[in-house]
Amino acid sequence: MKCTNGIPEECSHCKQETVGDYFQRGNKILCSKCHQDQRTNRTSSKKEARYEKVRDCTGVHHHKFQEKT
């Protein structure tokens, strides 16, 4: 499990914010959809295997945000 203190991670492939669990290899992040897309592509299966699943912490605790004024 990784806590980013409520700051969303960005997928290295599609550039969208991750929602829920995602995958990480070093400083590269893949959302679940892009990770699944890579799994169906046989040429990238070795790269895909190096990504580790990261659990989203929102099921454990919540973050409070303060709006800037």
Structure description:
The protein is an alpha+beta fold and 69 residues long. It has a domain at 22-57. 20% of the residues lie in helices and 16% in strands. The chain has two helices and three strands. It has helices at 32-40, 45-49; strands at 22-25, 28-31, 52-54. A hairpin with a 2-residue loop joins β1 (22-25) and β2. The radius of gyration is 14 Å and the shape is globular. The model has no long low-confidence stretch (mean pLDDT 74).
Topology:
Elements: E1 22-25, E2 28-31, H1 32-40, H2 45-49, E3 52-54
Antiparallel strand pairs: 1-2, 1-3
Q: What overall geometry do the principal axes of the alpha carbons give? A: globular
Low-confidence stretches: none
Rg on CA atoms, Å = 14 Å
Spatial separation of the terminal alpha carbons: 32 Å
Would you report the number of β strands? 3
The major sheet is characterized as: 3 strands, antiparallel
Average pLDDT rating: 74
Tell me the β content.
Answer: 15-25%
- What is the structural class? alpha+beta
Structure in a nutshell:
The chain is α+β, with helices and mostly antiparallel strands. The protein is built from two helices and three strands, in the order ββααβ.
